[in-house]
Specification:
Immunoglobulin-like; single chain; alpha+beta
Length: 397
């Protein structure tokens, strides 16, 4: 009996112990069904925060509304309104037809000349290169407004270095020529080949074909492409736009009259027009040396078919502000008929290369008063009344 009990102890007990061990391991490896019970000696770990949703882009209407609200807030600041008042006074010192002309106004002094721009060749490798090793190009015309029978001069330059301009040879394709229409459509006029004039320099001359019809002006688009011979960069492509007037509707005759009136200088220029309409005419006035700019006059002109006189007004105060006595030289006369029927700004007058030299005028002959009119006074009163209201309603600092 004693031996049987020992056998049970040595056989049953190890089996029961092994079973208990397996049950304990199963409990340890089982996934918990709920949150673990908090441990008294440790702080609970917070769950990770959910990532914030991306902010959707604001609709254009919301952006415009916010900008308007910001502008309205600025206009409630008396200091801002006072600044606008001073700017309004400065901008209305002269008659609306007169603007002082200074050397920095290149677009007025040379209204048809295209500004020179160095354009970097696109490509990550090139854009991240230092400027002295970077590739640049220019595709340009000598003017952006042409009047028949002037040919369009096209130039393409490819070079390395922002300053040293080392020429780079490329393989140039033909330039395609398009006539743009107000609707956005275009008509292909043909192609023109660029010829190499020097290493990295290519040029061509294009004369638009004559065409019948009542159209007086066109907006022409020239598109060129080129490839680099080493193949390191992608092919380049660029466009140039010019306005071309095939049938100039009016021309200056070269006849001028001048007079002093109410302390201002008035110069009449004769125009011969092929049609009736309202044109915009401008002329630059220089000192006696013909190079020192004084003022520019821009006026609307109602022309009839045949000969008409256009009056350019130079308000007297501008001569005192510029400190330049007479005589004066009127040149760079230009004009055009604004049009919505063409893709350009309208038909240009024929080129006028002449000039007119006025009589000698002392500065004392011109008014020193600022220009005035009921409209200007109404504008000043509106600013001053608003400024007074804001200052009265704003708390003292």
């Amino acid at each position: 009996m004693k031996t049987r009990r020992l056998r049970l102890r040595f056989v049953v007990l190890p089996v029961v112990g092994l079973a208990l061990l397996l049950i304990a391991l199963a409990l340890l490896l089982r996934e918990p069904e709920g949150p673990a019970a908090p441990v008294a000696t440790a702080k609970p770990v917070p769950p990770p925060a959910e990532p914030a949703a991306p902010t959707p882009p604001r609709p254009k209407a919301v952006v415009a509304a916010n900008d308007l609200a910001q502008t309205q807030r600025l206009l409630q600041d008396p200091n801002v309104v006072a600044t606008y008042l001073e700017r309004y006074k400065e901008a209305n010192r002269y008659a609306p037809t007169t603007v002082p002309l200074v050397p920095g106004m290149k677009d007025v002094l040379q209204p048809d000349v295209v500004p020179v721009r160095d354009m970097p060749v696109m490509g990550v490798r090139n854009l991240y290169t230092k400027p002295e090793h970077r590739l640049y190009y220019r595709f340009e015309t000598d003017k952006f407004r042409y009047v028949a029978p002037e040919p369009v001069q096209l130039r393409l330059s490819v070079y390395r270095g922002e300053r040293k301009h080392e020429p780079v040879a490329v393989k140039v394709g033909a330039v395609s020529v398009h006539r743009l229409q107000p609707s956005g459509r275009h008509t292909v006029l043909g192609t023109v080949a660029l010829k190499e004039t020097s290493p990295g320099e290519y040029a061509a001359t294009y004369l638009p074909p004559k065409r019948k019809g009542a159209e007086e002006d066109d907006l022409l688009q020239f598109e060129v492409s080129w490839e680099f011979t080493d193949g390191e960069l992608k092919p380049g492509r660029e466009r140039a736009l010019v306005q071309y007037t095939a049938f100039p509707p009016a021309a200056f005759t070269g006849r001028f009259l001048e007079r002093l009136e109410n302390g201002s200088l008035f110069i009449d220029a004769e125009v011969e027009s092929q049609r009736e309409g309202t044109a915009q005419v401008a002329g630059n006035l220089f000192a006696a040396d013909g190079t020192t700019p004084v003022a520019v006059s821009v006026v609307p002109a109602t022309l009839k078919r045949g000969h008409s006189w256009v009056t350019l007004e130079f308000y007297g105060l501008v001569f005192h502000d510029r400190g330049v006595p007479g005589p004066y030289v009127l040149k760079t006369l230009r004009g055009h008929f604004p049009s919505s029927a063409s893709a350009g700004r309208g038909a240009e007058f024929s080129r006028f290369g002449g000039s007119h030299t006025t009589r000698g005028y002392e500065l004392s002959a011109f008014t020193q008063k600022e220009w005035d009119s009921p409209r200007k006074q109404a504008g000043l009163k509106a600013y001053e009344d608003e400024l007074a209201r804001l200052r009265a309603s704003s708390p003292l600092p």
